[in-house]
Every structure is written in C-alpha cells, then in structure tokens.
Amino acid sequence: MYQFHNERKEIIFDKYNTPTPWMNYLSNGTFHTMMSQAGGGVAFYKSPQIFRINHYRFFHLPTDRSGFYTYIKDGQEIWCPTSEPCKDKPDWWQSTHGMGYTRFQARKNHLEVTATYLVGKYENALIWNLKLKSAKDKKIKIFPYVELGMMEFMRELQWQCYNKHQLSVYNKEDVLIYHYGVEEQPKPAETPLVYFACDAVVSGFDCDRDEFIGSYRSEENPYRVENNACSGSTLYGGDPCFALQLEVELKAGEEKEINIFLGTAMTEEEVLQSVQRCRKKGFVEKSLESLSEDWNAFLSKFKCEIPDKEAETMINIWNPYQMERNFQFSRNISYYATGTFRGVGVRDTAQDILAMIPFDLKRAKEKLNALFTQQYKDGHCNHYFYPNEGWEPITRIHSDNHLWLVMDVYHIVMEEGRLEYLLTEVPFYDGGADTVWNHIKKSIEFTRQNLGERGFPLMLSSDWNDMLYKVCRQGKGESIWTSMQFGTVLQMMDQLSQLMKEDGTVYLKLYEEQKQLINSTAWDGEWFRRCITDDGTFIGSEAEEQAKIWLNTQSWAVISGMGDPQKQLQAMDSVQKHLDTDYGIKKIHPSMKDYPAKEDPLTHYNKGCGENGSIFCHANTWAIIAECMLGRSELAYKYYHQLLPMVVQDKAGEYRYKAEPYVYASNIFGPESDKFGLANVSWLTGTAAWMYLAATQYILGVKAKWEGLEIAPCIPEEWTEVKIDREFRGCNYHITITNRGKKVFLEHVEGRKEFSVEI
Fold it and tell me: In 75-154, where do the E strands start and end?
C-alpha cells in the first residue's frame, strides 16, 4: 500500500482510498496548502481563519472533498491523475508525498500524466506541473478546477446567504481573479486577491461553480466537462470557482508540459506581474530545485545510521519534517482540526520551539519573541493568540504556559553557547518591555506567588492536562505535575544565573521546597499523585475508585529529578505495570466514568478516548525520556519503537489505526475503547517535537551543553554501532558510538569546522 523511498525522502502510495486522507503540507511560510494522497485539501494565505481560499468539507461524505483537480477528457472518458474525484479511475496510479511537494502519476488509455504540486519560495502560489505523454496520437481537453470558498470560514457557515453576494470572480487577460470583500471583515487592507492561471493557451473558463458543475451533480461529474466546453461564466454574487479549459494535441511518443498557478497578490497589477513571473521558462524547475535544496540543508543538521531502519527513517526524515510543519502551523488546521479558532497556543508553540532550536535558531528566537509578547508584567501568559487575524487573545491563565518559555530560553543558550539572547528586549502584553532574562525571572515569580494551601502551584484554569479544569473552579486546586515542571525549570534558572554571574540561591531553595513536598505529600505508595481538587481530594491515588494512576507525574518525577531515586524507579515500574499496552502507554488507569460524581464528572470523554485513558502519544515521549534518564535503555527503546507510526499501524492494522504511517498522532484509542488502536489528530501535535527530542537527545544522547556537545547514549544492547552527524555552532560533528555505556563531552572549539570522535 505504501513504500518509503528514503534516498528521495518520499513515501509512495499505490492506492488512493486510504482509511483516512493522508496529508502533506506544502508551504513557503506565507502561502500554504494541505493536500491529501488523492488530491483533496485546502489552500490558505497566512491564516485559515480569515484567508482560506477553497472549500474543504471536514467530516462530510464523500470523504476528502474538494481539492485541486485536473479533469482529462479523452474521447468519452473523463478521469483525473489524482484518481479522485471521478468515478472512472486510471488503469495504473500512484501518488507520492515528498518534502514540500506531492506528486501523482497515472496512466489510462495510452495516456500518461504526472502532476506535481508544490509551493515554491519565489511566489505565493500553489503550482501544479502537468507532464503528459501519449503512446498514440491524441487530442484531449484538460479542465483544471478549484472550488472557491469565502475566506472567512466561520462567517461563511453563518452568513453565506448574504456574504456570497459580495464576492466577484472575473477574467482579466486569461487570468481568473477572485475578489473577497465583505462588510466588517477583520483585515480588508491585508486581504489578497486570488488568481488562477496557466502557461498554456486558454480556450475557455468558468467562474461560477453552479455553471461548471451543474445541477444535482458534484466534483465527480462536472456538467461542463461532460459537454466538452466551459461556459465563460463570470460571478458577481454566488458560489465561486476557478475552472480553465485547455486543448492539448499529442503525437505518439510526444511529451508536453503545462503549469497551473493558484496564487495570491494584493492588486490586479501585482497579480498579472506574479503570473508573468510564473510563466517564465524555467520558473517551475527552479522552484522545485530550491525546495529540494532547502529541505536537504534543513535535514542535514542531524543524521544517523542505526540498526532500526524504521526509526532511522523517522529520525532522519519524517519526524523533523513533521516537527517543522508543526512549528509553523501550531495546532491550526489539519484533517482533524477545521482551522477556525485555535490561533497560536503559547504552551503548544513553546514546546514546538524546543525541537526547532538545533535546526534554525533564528526562526526559534523569532517565534519565542512572539510568545513573549503574550506575557504580562506579573509573569503569566495569555493561553493563545492570533498574530495574523488580529483578534483578541484567549486570556485564560494556566499554571504551565509561562514556564515553557524558561525551557526554550535555556535550550537556546545551550545551543548557542552565548548569553546575548538573554539581554534581548521584548515587550510585555500589558505594556513596557524588558530583557528576555527578566521575562523568565517573572515566569518563576508568578508561580512562586501562586502556590496553594499545601504548597504546590495552583492549578488556575488547568495545567497541561486541560480536562483538569474542573478540579480548580474555586481557585484552590493544586497541580502536582506543575510542581515537577516548576522544579525542572528552576534547575535551568540556577544554571543560567551562574552564567550571568548572579546568585541563583533562590531557585535552588524553591526547588528543594517543592522536592520535599513531592516526596512527602505527592507520593502515594507506588506512584505519584496527580493533583489536588478544590475540596482537598488527591486525584491519582490508590484510594480513589477511578483514574488511580496518571502517566505525567511518574515521568516528570524523573525528568525533574524531584522524586527520590527509589521512588522514581517504583513510579516508572508502575507505569509499565498499569499503563503500558501493545500500542503505547495510556495516560491514566483506569479510565473514568461518572467520577468523582455522576452529577459532575471530571470528563465526558468516553473510556479509552482522548484524555480519558487513551494512549496519549505526546505524554509517551516523557516516559521515554524518563527511562533514558534512569539508564533503562531496553524499556526506553521499547516505548519509543512501539509508537513509530509505521510500526503501530502495522500492529493495529491499517483500517484500525487509520492515520498516516509517516507522522505521529496526538493519541490512540486505549484498550477500554471498542476502537482500541485508532489513531486520532495526526500531524499537528506536540508529539512531533518531543519525540524528536526523546530520540536524538536521550536515546542517541546528543545534547547541547554550555561547554559543547554531551554524548550520553541510552541505546539497546544489541545496537553495536551508531553513527551520527550533527551540526553545532557552525561545526560538523561526526560521531561513532560503540555500545560500551560511555558518556563524554565534546568541548566546542572556535574555528574548527570538523570534529570526528569514536566513543
């Protein structure tokens, strides 16, 4: 069904009807397209909330409609190289997702077509490059088509009956132009025109969807394609589309190339200039070449050769690729998320930054600086915000948001080996500005000022587990997990204080106070409790009927170093005993139903779903890290390997797992669900960043420190040799690890460009 081609950094599919749409993200940072293995998907400029270009019908049947289609009329036969949406399918077909592009290859009735889709860096446009070759003389018609939507997706759902009459689509010099301009749209001056053009002679067009598709029809059988000609419709009010008609004549053995462009520009003049540049000879080839060069350079930052080739595929290619896309889009839009409300989450994005730091410090700092603009002078942060849309942020206060910022700053300093970033001034949300160093000091101070009755940090609106919001509605609930997160960053603050020549005693004192509480009040006998409710109940205790053990406090007791050594081992043994399954580690056990009371349950998630007993992949990464820190390489590798997407999909079965076998999911339904093994919310998940850190910095053990690189692998016994290339501070490190359990520092030396070491 699929095959990895690692040399080309591709995955190839030999059937279009995968269990769910298996997506790819094509993007230049401004213009974006999410595209499936069958050509379905959605394009948007900057924001899917206010600049969405085409329709994509989430959760509706037929699946994976609409998209970016090219209808081929060959005699009486009508088909698409994407396979979908026509009923008549190619005789032979395959599609390929690569780094920033998706390609379709199809053959029918002696006609071969290759359609390659990409977003290049030179224009804000989705390019689709068609190559056509026939074994016989042929005259065919080609109809490229996109069903347009109103750019504001939520407004379209609510007010389309009025707003659709304020749209226009028209033809100017064989370029179709879509103008979206409705009353009270959020950023009218920044709303682009959308265009559709090609570099071949256009013999017809349509701008009215109903004229092109016809009554009681769908993308499967457009009326104008069946009847050989577009109508020439424009649209000044109604349901818009872009459709072109091209006449192509092929001699036997001849190949022709046609390029179609779906793009954006701000004015008609800029639209025509953009199209002119796109049509220039060599433009598409140059765009493809630069895309390949950029991704090869990005992925060269870290490469490994290891015995587990499935893990090697993920570490070298798909995990960093997913991480970069996740870094760019936060949790905004995917097959599972409609892209209507999330914006940029401070907690989510701060974690995504951690994995970007070794790849691109400039982008990591820029994104972190944006997060700092959401911090208040008292140290807390907005929960998420809307930099492109300009909407008011979600101001809900969580106990963990501001602490992730400290972790990012620490890792940036360790990667750079310099302190200048700490002295960078960034603004506060509520006015004024201060250095990054003082910003993160305020993060610590906010938590210190918001400790509960028992001394743990107040839960506030919740911590990382969003469903725990019900334990703190009276403002008294406390988070034991946040105490461990707090302890983790307190140690980082102590190290940074030493580098800044400041007294870090206050951080160590706070750390020891929290550590004492963790080992006395939080310990339940075999594991650590999770939190304390407003009324003083300990969630995550053997004494409770349900949700007795939670994963996060066990792993973070190790990560923070706050659990006593024997308690750390016991806690992680309890994880293996109570939470591990064939498909990964459950978040809690047992799942909840009507707990703590039927009248006011902690969650309405079904058992084994979401936060209620699913295999929460994001949280699994911390268990892998914890086992590495304990030196238990076999368990760490077991937990890592069993969650490799292609491994868990193979074990669960393609139609049980459903999601992509090349990117991580957020969660997998647990054993208390009737759909045990079903993956959910793939692509845009914190799993991507943390799994990359777990694999590279803990299992392979290559970690940036102030003095240089630490090499402290925690690899399985049977791995006799591992080879790693790591770019670090302008140098190339070539590392060979033979499995002798050693740990070394590679001290960074300015001026050297190549380091080779055997451990």
Answer: 77-79, 92-98, 101-108, 111-119, 125-134, 138-147
